[in-house]
Amino acid sequence: MNDKPLIEDIRANPGTYGLNGRYYPTVMLLNGIDVAQSRGFFRGFAEWLCVQRQELSSFAWYKEIFREAVPEADPGEWRGPLTPEQDQRALDHLFTRVLEFLAVRNSREALIRMYADFRTLRGR
Asked: Which pTM was predicted?
């Protein structure tokens, strides 16, 4: 499964997908895509984020992405209102992280390594 072209198109043409350049609606669209794929689109994404940071988290993936991109804001503020600059930072980071994850998810070997690293992280 290669969803990279879809994510790149959403990033390049947000208006085509009914998006307005804000983080919250973009997350909702991506969540919808995940639901449409029987939760397969983001399967492993939360674990991958934990491995990337080398720490476990109970936050949903979209709050983690927001926390990374806009560290000065409370993670609960991910729905807004955000400044245009914060929204842009969050969106840029979101697309970057999703595309990085898809490269791992689409590689059997990389995915196996990621889950092994996550299991090690959980065992600490």
From this structure: 0.92
